[in-house]
Amino acid sequence: MSRILAIDDKEDNLIVISALLKNRIPDCNVITAQSGSEGLKKAKAESPDTILLDIRMPGMNGYEVCKRLKENESTRHIPVIMFTAEKIESRDHVSGLDAGADAYLAKPVEESILIAHVNATLRIKRAEDALRRDRNSLEEIVQERTRELRESEERYRMLAENVHDVISTWDMNLRFTYVSPSITPLCGYSVEEIINRKLEKFITPASFEVATQIIEEALALEKLEEKDFGRTWVMELEIICKNGSTVWTEVAAGFVFDKNGRAVEILGITRDITEKKRAGEEKAKLQAQFQHAQKMESIGTLAGGIAHDFNNLLMGIQGYVSLMLMGVDSTHPHYERLRGIEEQVQSGAELTKHLLGFARGGKYEVNPTDLNELIKKTSSMFGRTKKEINIHRKYQKDIYTVDVDRGQIEQVLLNLYVNAWQAMPKGGKLHLQTENVTLDENYIKPFQVEPGKYVKISVTDTGAGMDEATQQRIFEPFFTTKEMGKGSGLGLASAYGIIKNHDGFINVYSEKGEARPPRLSARDGGQGATFNIYLPASESEVSSQKSEISEDVRHGDETVLLVDDEDIIIEVGQEMLNLMGYQALVARSGKEAIKIYEKYKDKINIIILDMIMPDMGGGKVYDKIKEINPDIKVILSSGYSIEGQAAEILKRGCNGFIQKPFNIKELSHKIRKILSNK
Fold this sequence. Notes:
This protein is α/β, with parallel strands linked by helices. It folds into 4 domains: 2-133, Rossmann fold; 139-272, PAS domain (Beta-Lactamase), CATH 3.30.450.20; 278-345 and 552-678, 3-Layer(aba) Sandwich (Rossmann fold), CATH 3.40.50.2300; 366-538, Heat Shock Protein 90, CATH 3.30.565. It is built from 22 helices and 22 strands. Strands 11, 12, 13, 14, 15, 16 and 17 form a 7-stranded mixed beta sheet that branches. Helix 12 crosses helix 17 (491-501). The longest helix is centred in the middle third of the chain and has 53 residues, at 274-326. It is elongated, with a radius of gyration of 40 Å. The N and C termini lie far apart (97 Å).
């Protein structure tokens, strides 16, 4: 049963209205109130389906009553029809609409018009109730609107002003024949500015192409099948607002047919989905970044494994070369060849060093550092060799200190300088800038780092730039746009891994185009590439960097236990130790190492322990041996870098680390340093 609340200060008017409504609307229950305050109370208590409201009443007039109804959470959804006995002026319409009225009539009201408005608001109220009960009932609303449009020429008056969605109709040429007033808050246009104009003028070209294609396909389908007046289709269209901005909308539409079954109009309900669209795009962006991070992590694990195995292979070659060089001098006919092999081993070691950098295993010695000084040093060295590049520097005053491995960060910077130089074959400008920044949680979310203070380093060139596809892969190992033999594709991959390993992140911005002439800077517009590095700030004071002094091979006579699962390393390692004067015991597994140490613990002075072994890893072996003798000295040895497992073992008291491949001189210095406790 429909419930209608009539509010009028004159009892006679209420009697007439009640009789009319009960006579013309079946199952109608009329509730009356003779003042604005009484009407507000009954509206809250009875929750009627629609309200008839007189404007001119003593105390509280109709405008104030309507305004309070629309401001109240429990009554704002109730349609309100306002009426007055006076002549309607345009300002009255404005006042009524401002108050939130859904219709505005003048008394005496023609019965058919009043009943039509009441029926229309009742239908709207029922549709809105259904929408609140089920947010997925949009298709049912479209069906109901379509049937009602065919049933009555009063259909256009019934179209809702009380819902935020825009209801509109277009002819088959996509010209607007009707649009509800809610179009104005959506895009700024008035109804008059849209009526009789084509849809094409109010949406982007891409959206218009989408709309025409969907409508053509839907029309072709209708011709093939029996007419189904409930069929709807949904499309996303980008509307161009009056102020030039755009909003994304979702339009649920369906055909309106004449009595011969011919489509004559299109009825659509338009909803603003801009925020939903942006949220979806942001979610997709974050998902893509997460997937990219997972991909890079997987590639890093693979790269680290390859580097480890390759370093073990190089260790065998390096060991034999070191042994052979110990027995010859520069006059030997094979001396230069052996030195050449050693140089090639070092080149291979540099390659694996890049791989380990990408695999986030690149920090060896971390010190508080002034990045301004580091950039001055590296850029000056680079500038002396590349005279065709003009370097411009802009340093942050009082730059934050950062805790970094200076050698690794120098490697990153030089990689970026070389990358920029290769992008400017005819010369150009290289802009280097440092900046103190504070990054919040929203900014750092895609990069999986902590919010807080960072130092930002920007490296910008005036080269040709790169396209989006290249930017997506630029940090992958072995990816390169250079010709075969011109680059390994490891420079930027190593930079990515090193910065990630320092709890920072690196990104790139670029647009593909022609390289700019040297007279233009990166800020003059156009293409080029900018790499931005972010490193977390530290509270430590900048420390000086010590340089190692090269020495000859150092000898000893202590007993050394060499533990490694690779036969080649056991063989060359034992020979190297014997050549240096040490008594060498060997173990080819962790379990064997523990047995040997238990047997000869009083004789063994130091252990060289491989970190990665199949039966028992170096970490477990170290812990077991330390339980036997807490004072035993241990040097970790690995094809991996010092980060990760090695760093954890060192924190537990391990005395040192040496990375494969190492030569006899490096090994001799490491052993003597630890045994001498220097």
